[in-house]
Design goal:
5 helices; three-stranded antiparallel sheet; alpha+beta; transmembrane; Pilus assembly protein TadE
């Protein structure tokens, strides 16, 4: 037993000699975690907003093209397309002006000729979160997201 006590006392002496670094591992872990965790959380936030903009742009372009080709006239079609873009943008919490985000182009003149095609192009600019306004004034910190959809005007409808 004396041999075991000597070994144990040597072990305790070594542990007591290292007391100068006691508690530093926790601080190092917290520091490294913050350095790695903050950029990852920011990246997840940015990617989430970009994905939301992608959903909004795709849905807005699809519905704008559909509503335009089913309208009775070009003026009504434009209003309906802008309204559908407004709904799609608000659904994903974007405050962009739908009239500026939407561009409609037709393959024929007038637009709603049977067999013609209507292209809806929607572009959304996603600002990076938590960037102060004075920095945005100096450097454009936005991610542009766009989508296009083409819809055909029904061949069996009357020209309007």
């Amino acid at each position: 037993m004396t041999r075991w006590r000597r070994t144990w006392s040597r072990f305790l002496a070594r542990v007591r000699a290292r007391d100068g670094e006691a508690g530093n591992a926790v601080l190092e872990f917290l520091g490294a975690s913050l350095v790695l965790l903050v950029p990852i959380v920011y990246l997840v936030l940015v990617l989430g907003r970009v994905q939301a903009a992608t959903f909004a742009a795709e849905g807005a372009a699809r519905e704008a093209a559909r509503t335009y080709v089913t309208a009775d006239s070009s003026a009504v079609g434009t209003r309906q397309a802008v309204s559908s873009v407004r709904i799609a943008l608000r659904d994903q919490a974007f405050d962009d002006d739908p009239a500026q985000a939407l561009t409609l182009s037709c393959s024929t003149t007038p637009c709603l000729v049977p067999g013609g095609r209507v292209e809806a192009h929607v572009e959304i600019r996603v600002p990076l979160p938590f960037v102060p306004a004075f920095v945005r004034g100096a450097v454009p910190l936005e991610v542009p997201v766009s989508a296009e959809r083409v819809a055909a005007v029904d061949e069996f409808r009357s020209a309007r």
